Structure formats: C-alpha cells, structure tokens
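Researcher: Please generate the 3D structure of the following complex. Treat every line as part of one assembly.
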Amino acid sequence: MPAASAILLGIQIAEAVARGIHSAIEAKIAVETMVAEGRDPTPEEWVALTAVTEQLLASIRES
Amino acid sequence: MNDSKPWYLSRTIIGVLISLLSKGLVALGYNPSPDIEADLVNLVLLAIGFAGDALAVYGRVKATKGIGRRPGDGDPPLGVGALAATLLLAASLAGPLAACATPAADTPAQRVYALQADLNAGLAVVNAYVHSPDAAARPQVKQSLKSLAATAVAAVLSAQAAVRDGNDAVVPAAVAAASRAVSELGAYLTAHRIAEAADARR
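Model: Done. Output below.
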C-alpha cells in the first residue's frame, strides 16, 4: 500500500476512533453526573446510547 | 502482579503527579477540586494514549524497511497500512478505554451504561477497520471482528434490559457476560496485533 494511502487510512481510523472515544467520554461524564445525582440512566439516555450502538453494528454488518 | 507497563501509563503514578501539581497550585492560592483532579488524570492518560498511537503510525510509515513475509510464503505480506491500522486499533482500544473506564459507576445500571459506552468506542474502531482495504485482504480477521462485535452488542443489550427491568436474579450474570464479551473484543484486537508481529518476524 503506498505511503499516502497508509497515512489516509491511519487518519480515517484515527478520526473514527476519536468520534467513538468522544462519545465514550461524553457517556463517562454522564455516568459521573448520575453518580453525583444518585440516579440511574434515564430512558432518554439509554435510547441515545443504544442508537449509537445499533448504528455502529449495522455499519459493521454492511461491510 | 506479573504484567508490567510503562510508568507513564500508570493511573497511580499519573494520579500522584496530578496531586503534586494540585498541591503546587494550592501553594499559589488556587484550590482545585478533587473532581477536577480525577478528570485531569483521565485526560492525561487519554492524551498519552493518542500520542502513542500517532507515534506508532508515524514510525511505521517512515520506516525504510517493509514488513511482511517473503514471496511464496502463502498469505499476502502485511502492508504498512494493515500494520498501522492494527497498531492504532489495538492501542487505541486499550488506552482510551482504560482512560474512559469509570470507577465511579455505582449501581448495576450505571455500570452497564459505562460498559456500553466503552463498547461504542470499540465498535467505532471495528467499524473503521472492517471497511478498510486491509480488512478485505484478511477475510478471517474481518469475520471474527464482526462476530465478536455482534456478540458483545447482544450481551450488553441483554444486560441493559436486565438492569432496566430490575430483574435482580439475572442482573449479576448478565452484567458479567456483557463485561466478558466486551473484553473478548478488546483482547482479540490486542492478540491480533501480537500475532501479526510474530508472523512478520518469521
């Protein structure tokens, strides 16, 4: 694979990782908020998180 | 304790350094809260993880010698892109997930939520890789990743259903199964990197 293609692949994966990690960090902050507030995730929070999960799995299956 | 890791990846050492920094700030009249210290530790570990990934990709691309088997050995040689992607995937999955894992999760529902967040980070990595040309050249790896991802998702969603239903009888087993499945996905990426490195040295 040419170096330019390797770099592009690395950047694309890094971008995907960054998006996934950003989502994970947001969810982590949400968990800390839940702990501080002494509550479990709301139905809306579960729906939002699961939407990301299902979207990613669907994309993986399409490959 | 049999496994070792670099000092700069140790949450304890990073935490001590952040604590020392905080004490210095107190001496200067600024009083950071413990919550900020915890966030700083996670952010520093995350930054170190990303820096390591970037260095791995840069080093591999700049290498003057390729990596791969000799012609006629059977499987196609490992391309620069495949190695870079695998290194990035494995390191990224281990590093940021470790930094993102929250010790603060108290209840089973909170733990499952945090676990699913970690899973989403891993799925993003898998999704990027299975759509890459390198994955097309390695159909068995691609199929294994798809299978492990599907299994992990099913297990985590089952755990979610259990905690939301409040079914105390099945929650512990469901959460344990979900945690195991997510760990297996991460372990496969890490092990795959090791296996490829071993193949490259033959």
